[in-house]
């Protein structure tokens, strides 16, 4: 039957059809819906699904299941693969027994990431096969096939969708029936599971030999296709760029051969050479890094083919950002020396300037503001982390001075404090990030005698990626009730000398707690706890300005940056976005912000 599915949902259905038995992951755009779709089916279908505390843990749990013969899948975004790199590199040597599939979603653009790294490069680095889907249907089919490939090779297989493939929708042919899988045979003790150096050298030879086996499998893969054409110039492409190429050659009415590679590493050499037999010039079109292009250059040189190859190295195809039809059309036109008609320039009105801001009523705004007040008059440094609270760096809060990667707020702050021991450092990170990679940094800071304040912005969810669970909550990914871990007690167990829990919207108490934390001679931890406004919106009426009391001093407008507040003709105005959090009411020197609005 056909079902309208987003690419990420299609991947989930592919895993279901393949009989997946264990699914793990860590949320991150554009990958999150893969896991949430599977988590929603896990109870009914009888497989295990868990949000893990980070990608390394997720991969190791999935690998353990695969060691015991189960089919396992792990999901993450591209930067998450860096966190999982340590087990991945050795897992390639050890291998797996049951099928193990990593779905790593890349974010060219990037829309919601710290960088644009190309997972296909990581696959090459780890010497693991990678599949590059171009549509939701293909993403589903590749996922199902990846488990078979993994078990055939005894290796993990990577599927690398990019943002458009993840989030576009298509009618996908699915089989609602889950593949019946035999009960896993269980873990069998064997020295081959223990990676001593003497084993590593043997397995490295085996892994290199497996490169040939991968190529043999990919030579006959249905995911590699040739579109015939009459010209002696052609295009090689992969992933979502394949769709752009098809659209462009249709628009330009070009009769050219196209080779679509769905198995982007390792390149199927013989079938690619057969395609190149009929052409003299080739254009390579792919998003991000020149992964296919590099392999083609090497192959052409090894096989002494007198071909002209063009792509990213001569800047016909952009190496940064997403591709689209217009970009591909310009590349194709340049390659075939076709003049494109000049488009009449339409002057569009300038887009309104809308800098990203924390939501109206977001408790993080109150946390940042409390620390700004507590540290007023000092040169304190505020180190930030990955999450929606990174927006604390925007004016007027200006409360995030650094942001590198998950968990780095504490460790970067520790490093800064080593160089400037008298300067106060405040490290902000979210509750999910604390569990992800914050705890080792906290332990390290305590053990090495650092002096800094760690602020855990505990909004009771993983907000930025869609409100996923984490170990501090009472429900897990499948909705089962679980015992929550208390962040404050964990911080005490890590050795923090001062630990407090405070409501950031209790303004005076929050500022006082921030002052005490800043004055502490050691590692202090302040857990600023209040639910994400998206979870509780609509519980309080909005506020209004009492014009007779308002001094038009600008404090509420100029210090908080709340999107519910804006300047009107007669002074500040509270708009309909107000959630009644009362932070502005508490800092108003004239007590001019009062109740009286409506529940939104």
Automatic annotation (TrEMBL):
It catalyses: indole-3-pyruvate + 2 oxidized [2Fe-2S]-[ferredoxin] + CoA = (indol-3-yl)acetyl-CoA + 2 reduced [2Fe-2S]-[ferredoxin] + CO2 + H(+). NCBIfam families: IOR_alpha. InterPro entries: 4Fe4S_Fe-S-bd, 4Fe4S_Fe_S_CS, HACL1-like, IorA, Pyrv_Fd/Flavodoxin_OxRdtase_N, THDP-binding, TPP_enzyme_TPP-bd, Transketo_C/PFOR_II. The lineage of its organism: Bacteria, Bacillati, Bacillota, Clostridia, Eubacteriales. Binds 2 [4Fe-4S] clusters. In this family the first cluster has a non-standard and varying [4Fe-4S] binding motif CX(2)CX(2)CX(4-5)CP. This is Indolepyruvate oxidoreductase subunit IorA. PROSITE patterns: 4FE4S_FER_1, 4FE4S_FER_2. One of its GO terms (molecular function) is 4 iron, 4 sulfur cluster binding. Heterodimer of the IorA and IorB subunits. The keyword Oxidoreductase applies. [4Fe-4S] cluster 1 binds at residues 550, 553, 556, 588.
